[in-house]
Amino acid sequence: MKRKQKIIIGTSIAVLIVVFGLLFFYFDGQKAVSAKSEEIVVEISGSTSTVINQLDQAGLIKNKTVADIYAKLHKHDLIANVYVLNKNMDLKTILKILEGDKNYISTAKITILDGNTIPECASQVAKALDIEVDTTNLNDEQILAAKTQKVLEKWADKEYLQTLVDKYWFLDQCILGNEIMFPLEGYLGPETYVITSKKTTIEDVTEMMLDQMDKNLSAIKDKIAEFKINGNSVTVHQFLSLASVVQCEASGKKEDQAKIAGVFMHRLEINMRLGSDVTVNYANQIKTVAVTYNHLEVDSKYNTYKYDGLPIGPISTVSNEILDSCLNYQKTDDLFFFALKDGTVIFSKTYDEHQQVVKENKWY
To answer: Quick count: other Cβ atoms within 10 Å of Cβ 347?
Structure first.
């Protein structure tokens, strides 16, 4: 009898240990991942299980198994959005916030598109940041222009730029040259950047964009080092100059992008000028399809009708897709191309062929 009692007592204790262990595991797994404050911006969407995965990947969940169980036991109507959460929040708090708490929804974003120029990037930054300017007698458009000018001034400050050259491996002294129109042109990574604080500065955003470009370029650093034009290695600056021209010329299919890059490489290899309209537009700081002879006369090292080789610097932001298209350009005998209104590109080997294509298909 005593032996039976001992077994029952022992079994009960074991069960209690297991139960308390499971309870500890369950409640401990719901706790915050850190006692320290660290804001994390996370975009959530999809089903509850998908959201749990997104939170886990963002480092906001202490125990994913517990989170999955908790989410099944407690119904939450999660609303897709971009949230500013914190690593010191427990699971219950996070899921409650994700029901659409406006206090934690990030609304300030800076979207830098493929092919944007520095003035366009500066305007986007100016819209999102709290930049102090004298607004006396200014309308909204003039206030934005004044803020944009502040951004451009910072991005032209050579003392500040030198600190960036010292920090980022892909920036070098050539961006500080007197004939460079905008030193950071081509070096800001196209992306949507979420602003999490009203105290965010121009410098903060600049580094966010350069960090993104660092990520983009580091992934292909060795390939750029192996890239050659006429048997000669190129700098990152030269490679981005080429890529940005392709970016602005090739808005269609990826195969066209690689072939357009091939046309420009072919021209460079036979010492023929690039003759790219988009470089003329950049030199004139305009955007037009109908480039005129007057436009072509602009005396600028960006004008590839007037000067041999690559433009003196990049002329826009560059997407990862274009970087890849340039690294893997399609070798071709073609020297000319013409884009139709629908984006279709017609390639030609001779100038006469090209002129005939333009005559038959000109749409502007």
So the answer is: 19
| C-alpha angle 326-169-246 in degrees, rounded to nearest 5 | 20
CB atoms closer than 10 angstroms to residue 202: 20
Residue 230: which H helix or E strand, with range? none
Q: Is 248 helix (H, G, I), strand (E, B) or coil?
A: helix
| Eight-class DSSP state of 104 | G
SS3 state of residue 146: helix
Tokens of 226: 């192996």
pTM, 2 dp? 0.75
Nearest to 32 by CA among 99, 97, 92: 92
Going through the chain in order, the beta strands assigned E by DSSP cover 39-44, 81-86, 108-112, 191-195, 228-229, 232-233, 336-339, 345-348
For 96-125, what is each residue's pLDDT tens digit?
A: 999 988 888 877 889 999 999 999 999 999
Residue 107: exposed, middle, or buried by beta-carbon count in 10 A (0-12, 13-18, 19+)?
Answer: exposed
Residue with tokens 């700081």: 285
Q: What is the pLDDT of residues 68-97, one digit of tens each?
A: 999 888 888 899 888 889 999 999 999 999
| CB contact at 8 A, 77 and 114 | no
CA dist., res. 230 & res. 105, Å (int):
52
DSSP state string for 18-45 = HHHHHHHHHHHTTS-S-SS--EEEEEE-
Under 8 Å between Cβ of 331 and 262:
yes
HSE-up of residue 201 (Cα within 13 Å, Cβ side): 5
Q: Is there a contact between 304 and 237 (Cβ–Cβ < 8 Å)?
A: no
Nearby residues of 48 by Cβ (< 8 Å), 6 or more positions away: 71, 76, 78
Locate tokens 């119904």: which residue? 75
